[in-house]
Every structure is written in C-alpha cells, then in structure tokens.
Amino acid sequence: MSKPSAEPAPPGEPPPEVSDEDLLAESLVTPERFAAIFDRYAPVVHGYLSRRVGVLADDLMSETFLLAFRGRDEYVPGRAPVRAWLFGIATNLVRRHARDEERRYRAFGRAAGRLEVTTELGEVAGRVDAHALRGELADALASLAGEDRDVLLLWTYPQLSYAEIAVALDIPVGTVRSRLHRARGKVRERLGDRWLTTEETA
User: Fold this and answer.
1) What is the residue range of 98's domain?
2) Is 189 exposed, middle or buried (0-12, 13-18, 19+ CB in 10 A)?
3) What is the mean pLDDT of residues 83-100?
4) What is the per-residue pLDDT for 134?
5) Model-level pTM?
6) Given this model, what pLDDT does residue 97 score?
7) How many domains does the chain have?
8) In this structure, is residue 14 part of a structural domain?
9) Which tops the pLDDT comparison, 144 or 90?
C-alpha cells in the first residue's frame, strides 16, 4: 500500500517552504502573495508595538504593513531577513510617538507598586532580568534615550541579532553594540545586580 501524499496547501496559500524573500518577490507580480507575509509576522510585530505604544499598536501595525506593501520593491534580498526590514519600519513609526511611549513606561512604573505584576513587560524582563520588578524596569526604559531604547527592545522582544538590528535601524553593527551596551548599563544602574549577564552574539 502506497504512502498517502501530503495534503495540498489551501487554495491561494503558498506552501510552507516558500521563503519570505520569495513571497515578497512574488508579491511584486501577484500582490495577494503579500498576505502571507502579513500572516507570518503580524502577531509578533503587533506584540512588539503593543509593548512600546499600547493602544496605538493596532494603528501602527496596519501602517507598518501598508508601508511595507507599498515599498516592497525597495527590499534588497540577502541584505537582511524580511522580519528585520519590517521591524525597522515599525520602529520608525514608534519614533513618532516617543513621548507617548515614555509616558507609558512611567505609568507602568507608578502602577507597579499598586497592582499585581502584569505580563506587559514580561518579554523584556525575561531578557534583561527574570527577577527584576516590572516597575523598576519600566522606569529604566523610560529613562533611556530613544535610540538606545530602540536597540534594547529590538534585541529583547523579537530577539533580532546585532546584524538584523543594524539593518532595521540603518546603523553600523558597531553602533548597535555600543547602544546596547549603554542601554544595558543604564538598566543595570537601576536594577543593581539583577540583569542578564550573558552577552548576545551577532
């Protein structure tokens, strides 16, 4: 008895082995292909944005993918993964709301003493320090320069590599390293010895 063949992909859905780069290239001819990129990355992009700008995440996620769709012909295959390119767009949009983000973290810091620990900062805390009080972490994040916070949060939540962060923010890898070192140092000052000491490799 012959082995049953694999179940075909649903109509309109590319097979799972199609790479992000190929999907993006195909979308230049067949725009509907871009929907697969959205399906793959919308949840993680939304999670990243929600941790940075809260209720604005829905709007900024929509704008991120709209800009990506309109500018998909500018993506350079092989330079960096598609996800790094998407997070670069999302981070540029966050920068327009830097004051909202800082106020959000300061509000978390004030609320932490009155409320049970939430999961909003859990992903960041998991990389910086699993035992740090979320209130102290929120205060530390609010105190960072925007460019340093961008690097730290791209390293912590979506866990981009140094090379991917460099592409996302259009800066040299050396600058990524120095900004991350500075950001982690400032967080360390706030949290004492409660931080992750294992250095990420590029």
Assistant:
1) 20-191
2) exposed
3) 86
4) 57
5) 0.69
6) 77
7) 1
8) no
9) 90
